[in-house]
């Protein structure tokens, strides 16, 4: 079984936390988080979970807290103890990357970087790093590690060329697309009985105003949030700071059909991937949404619902972890949930 070290920013990052959940599910104690991500474990305190954005729903407090030796972990990685070292949330772990990335690379350790920011700029090609002269020559990641990024557009090439070249001919970095994921235990085995069309929590203001839904977080407990979606035929989602959001996956995993405002505008290189007319509804306005919903036959809805659940399963944390390992040529035994 391969051994993987994932260096995290010591607070939640939905992309990295989904990947780590999948790696730990697949590899057990051979997937090591550093520092320990307390909020990922079933032993997490209420105060630790309370500090997690989004109420610690979906990804958090799930993993068994295995005994892991994290002492001198980075020197041990440098000595070749791990088959892969992943620097998660590179926008916040770039300090550790600066210190250890080049050393690990020169020692022949296989490296990956996760960029889950709601930004098209890759590390370190943005104003965050340009404004500090001491950061101008930070060690690059794209030429030392496999670089996985959630938001890739032609503007990514523009920033990589320091805004000197137009996007069409800007500098092309080797960046691999990746998306959020959802734990397999959060995905229903079959579609539940539905009681109404739409849930109480509606994140699109126009739709919420028309239907009387609530925009802000309305549930203190995750089971109430999930029950709200499981009772509903549809779930409303939109582009937030970035195109990807856990809500897309939560809706589908609860057996509801995602209704995604202007999904067709999403750039091809931005997650989520695979949402289309077979498993979701793209709408332009509340009138457009309600008209599409009214036109659906029972058979058409059943196909969309089945497609949404299938899409959720294709985006489980375990699937995402396997995809990352496969992309790096790291074999893993056929174990763990899918």
List the defining traits of the structure above.
single chain, 338 residues, alpha/beta, Rossmann fold, 2 domains, six-stranded parallel beta sheet, three-stranded parallel beta sheet, 12 helices, 11% strand, globular
Structure commentary:
It is built from 12 helices and 9 strands. The chain is globular. 43% of the residues are buried. Strands 2-1-3-4-5-6 form a 6-stranded parallel beta sheet, with helices on both faces. Helix 1 packs across helix 12 and helix 9 crosses helix 11. With 338 residues, the protein is of the alpha/beta class.
List the helices and strands and how they pair.
Blueprint: E1 4-7, H1 14-27, E2 31-34, H2 46-50, H3 73-78, E3 84-87, H4 90-106, E4 111-115, H5 127-130, E5 146-149, H6 154-160, E6 175-177, H7 205-211, H8 222-230, E7 234-237, H9 246-253, E8 257-261, E9 281-283, H10 286-295, H11 298-314, H12 317-327
Parallel strand pairs: 1-2, 1-3, 3-4, 4-5, 5-6, 7-8, 8-9
Secondary-structure element order, N to C: EHEHHEHEHEHEHHEHEEHHH
Low-pLDDT sequence parts: none
Largest sheet: 6 strands, parallel
- Give me the side-by-side strand order of the main sheet: 2-1-3-4-5-6
Let me know the number of strands: 9
- Integer tally of domains: 2
Backbone CA Rg: 21 Å
What class would the helix/strand composition place it in?
alpha/beta
Which descriptor suits the 3D outline? Answer: globular
Quickly count the helices: 12
How is this structure best summarized?
The chain has two domains: 4-180 and 317-327; 188-314, 3-Layer(aba) Sandwich (Rossmann fold), CATH 3.40.50.2000.
